[in-house]
Amino acid sequence: MKISDRKEIVVVGNGMVGYKFCEKLVAKQGNEAFNITVFGEEPRPAYDRVQLSSYFAGADEDDLQMAPEEWYEEKGIALYTGELAVDLDRKHKTVTSQKGRTVTYDTLILATGSSAFVPPIDGVDKDGVFVYRTIEDLEAITKYAAGASKAAVIGGGLLGLEAAKSAMDLGLKTSVIEFAPRLMPRQLDEIGAGALKTALEGLDLEILLNKNTTLIGGNGTPEYLDFADGGHLEADMVIISAGIRPRDELAKKAGLEVGERGGIIVDDQLQTSDSDIYAIGESALHRGMIYGLVAPGYEMADVVVENLTGGEEKFTEFDMSTKLKLVGVDVASFGDAFGESEENSKKVIIDNKAKGVYKRINVSDDGDRLLGGMLVGDADDYNMLLQIAQNGFSLPPDPVDLIIGDRDEESGGGQKVYEFPDNSIICSCESVTKGEICDVIEEEGKEDIDSIKSCTNAGTGCSGCVPMLDDLLTQSMEARGREVRKVICEHFDYTRQELFDIIKVKEIHTFDELLDEVGQGDGCEKCKPAVASLLASAFNEHVLEERDTIQDTNDRFLANIQRGGTYSVIPRVPGGEITPDKLITIGELAKKYGLYTKITGGQRINMMGARVDQLPDIWEDLIEAGFESGHAYGKALRTVKSCVGSTWCRYGLHESVSFAIRIEERYRGLRAPHKLKGGVSGCVRECAEAQAKDFGIIATEEGWNLFVCGNGGTNPQHAKLLATDLDEETLIKYLDRFLMFYIKTAEHLNRTSTWLNKMEGGLGYLKKVVVEDSLGIGEELEIEMQQLINVYSCEWKEVVNNPELRERFTHFVNSDDVDPSVKFKDYREQPVPAPAGWKEKG
Amino acid sequence: MQAHENVKKWFKAARVEDFPKNGGACVKYRDKQIAVFNFTRRGEWFACQNMCPHKKEMALARGMIGESKGEPKVACPFHKKAFSLCSGENINGEEEPVTTYPVKVEDGYVYIGLTTD
């Protein structure tokens, strides 16, 4: 194609939607047919504005970037950031930036987005009043917040609550001020908004409703707010999030039709009143509607790309269903959330105030179809409900069953994803249907999630549909009579459980032997640590002998790698009991090696910032002082946390500390499919938080109750009661069986909770195996556990005393120099990693 | 991996036995940190920059090596970003590629090929 045949496409706006347009266009057409020029007002290329709040949570700019500048270069796109398009000459078809750059277009795409709407409140121009929109806004807020103590967020919609979360994360006492009588008035009804308000207040966020702010008072900077009803609120920082205004000034100036309240008017092809100019995203006014979410913006980009490349597509109404986590509270709304689309629709409501959960669904008059609904506090049913509503599935006789939750674990009743019609959307971010995914699985033979993701793009956006992809894959395999095997990776056609048996039966002690015997290729980062864990669980031999390079880095250096490439050191403190002398040792060691110290959640002390070459020396000193490895780096038993117990506590029934120490010393060094944590509480007050552990032991009048399969972390789950009123010996017997059963049968990297959730028969089955010994393997499990316990030794002690192992703890293989990139700065009187580019003062 | 004919200088890094079997170690060359990997199972050696492009950590030498459909790779210990040791491309993401270096073994020593002096 001759250069002159290329069409000039100019995109004004480099936000998420403007970027998506470019991505879709080059994906569809390559960069042969078009020359693309992009203007962006912001100083950096497009970033993920939806994730802005994560910027506070420590993500850096690069994480948020949609694509690096090199991407544009590679695709032949001329990107001008920091250049606002100020002039549009429709007669000569040119766009001019504020820097005077003029480019000619054949087709112009206006993706100018929106700006924050700032209501004309008296005092709104003070320093310390911010909007919440760009990375620059966030940087300014972060800087200002350092000297502030109380934030007021004006606006209780979605963005306002996001802003409030960020203010709270910055350590500010925060209030949200909403003009309307309820939060999120566009998404939630009164009861739903009430449930959200209660939940947010429980998280220490103040919510003020029906408040019309009339004044931001103070001397130069905000000190207080006055409301129309005479109310008053102290605040030294204000964030305004009262809605958005489409950026239509360029279009308006050029004489394009715009809406009365802003927005560039477009038709179903997204053409403006000038057929060579399209508008997409938040600046477009389509059938009287501005879409303030990213998904419809992406859909618009897609429609324009289709139309520019010879297709015919229309943008009609867009489903605004959405599921969010607001300040940690689940909120979702889908379909016709308010039941306004049909006459006589019936609402079905669960308003569980005790649990802070509100669920509402709207069903058709005849009870046959689900129209839509809203969920607050628990949105687990969202995907399923959305599918039912979108596909018009028939409903159970009593629709309340749809939202009542799983009272009976695994009772089923829900429709299988595999039975959905082919055109049902599984991934709404990328608009991928069930049919497309099944084609990839069944026609192209892609039978793992990663391949399905890369072939269809499903699950690559918000990743909320990944569990459904997993179900779809499993169900598709089952439907075709294929065995579903959770094989570890391409190098072993076996499940973890099968490999464990092979290792034990054939007495295989190294990774290479196993690979030669039953595997193929050289292994990878998936199977190596899995096999390392199996070998450790099978024989409990030293993890570095002959197998250091198959361990994850933490196990390879027997310490946890941290930012900057240094390691943390955590010696075992059984039950959290430690003598003053040992405390002094830790303090002296931390000073000697310049380490940062912090108390861990598991009642131990973490010394951080050790260089790899320092590790053996530090451990030599620790072992000298009577410490041993805490296995904080391993998928292994970590800690058994305890309360102070009956020795001291006036409520304590039994000596929880002694029991915790006994248990921790029994299972120390035990390697498992994932980390293991335990807890022992001396009474029902449960100060050791034992019910949040893989195994929790709580004293009763008669003995001890044993709870299992709890955890904190990403998906907290309470431990479940396995047996009651046990004496110590019986409890240990059950614990031996439980742990060994877990080690032998769980998938790699599944915590006990996940393992139990997947177990057919659930807790009832586990009780039968462990307590009633229904499989007749109880004694075998106990013996296997005893064998592991018998061969325990401190792995750090071995390293310290073995010059050959010790030699491996260096940064460079050809030099004794330390890693010059490791730098520290002072932070609250302790050393912490210095960011890249940091320079020492003076 | 870069072709040997472009090499201007072979840097004598260390003895073969200084490197772990089926694993990596870091070599210092002037200001550079180069990760060298000993694929003992296939009798091959590879090298790349030690810095992972993702979070700019000096860590690839401590990463786990392996192979996918025959292509040798290393996974960064920080966030498991995997890089091909042939092309340097990020296999499971969109990070920048890493620079790779040719490696040869002669008389029990490992040499890294450098294209600049």
From TrEMBL, chain A:
BP-aspect Gene Ontology terms: nitrate assimilation
Domain named NADH-rubredoxin oxidoreductase C-terminal: residues: 321-387
The BFD-like [2Fe-2S]-binding domain, residue ranges: 425-474, 487-536
Domain Nitrite/Sulfite reductase ferredoxin-like, residue spans: 562-624
Cofactors (names): [4Fe-4S] cluster; siroheme; FAD; [2Fe-2S] cluster
GO molecular function: 2 iron, 2 sulfur cluster binding; 4 iron, 4 sulfur cluster binding; flavin adenine dinucleotide binding; heme binding; metal ion binding; NADP binding; nitrite reductase activity
Residues in FAD/NAD(P)-binding domain copies: 8-284
Binding site for [4Fe-4S] cluster: C643, C649, C683, C687
PROSITE patterns from the UniProt entry: NIR_SIR
Residue ranges annotated for the Nitrite/sulphite reductase 4Fe-4S domain, each copy included: 634-759
Cofactor note: Binds 1 [4Fe-4S] cluster per subunit.
UniProt entry keywords in alphabetical sequence: 2Fe-2S, 4Fe-4S, FAD, Flavoprotein, Heme, Iron, Iron-sulfur, Metal-binding, Nitrate assimilation, Oxidoreductase
Binding residue positions for siroheme: C687
One Pfam family named in its UniProt record: Pyr_redox_2
Pathway noted in the entry: Nitrogen metabolism; nitrate reduction (assimilation)
InterPro entries on file: BFD-like_2Fe2S-bd_dom, BFD-like_2Fe2S-bd_dom_sf, FAD/NAD-bd_sf, FAD/NAD-binding_dom, FAD/NAD-linked_Rdtase_dimer_sf, NasD-like, NiRdtase/SiRdtase_haem-b_fer, Nit/Sulf_reduc_fer-like_dom_sf
PANTHER family linked: NITRITE REDUCTASE (NADH) LARGE SUBUNIT
Family that this chain belongs to: Belongs to the nitrite and sulfite reductase 4Fe-4S domain family.
Name by which UniProt lists this protein: Assimilatory nitrite reductase (NAD(P)H) large subunit
TrEMBL record, chain B:
One of the record's GO molecular function terms: metal ion binding
Keyword entries, A-Z: 2Fe-2S, Heme, Iron, Iron-sulfur, Metal-binding, Nitrate assimilation, Oxidoreductase
Swiss-Prot/TrEMBL GO biological process terms: nitrate assimilation
Entry-linked SUPFAM superfamilies: ISP domain
InterPro entries attached to this UniProt entry: NasD-like, Rieske-like_NirD, Rieske_2Fe-2S, Rieske_2Fe-2S_sf
Pfam families: Rieske_2
Listed NCBIfam families: nirD_assim_sml
Protein name: Nitrite reductase (NADH) small subunit
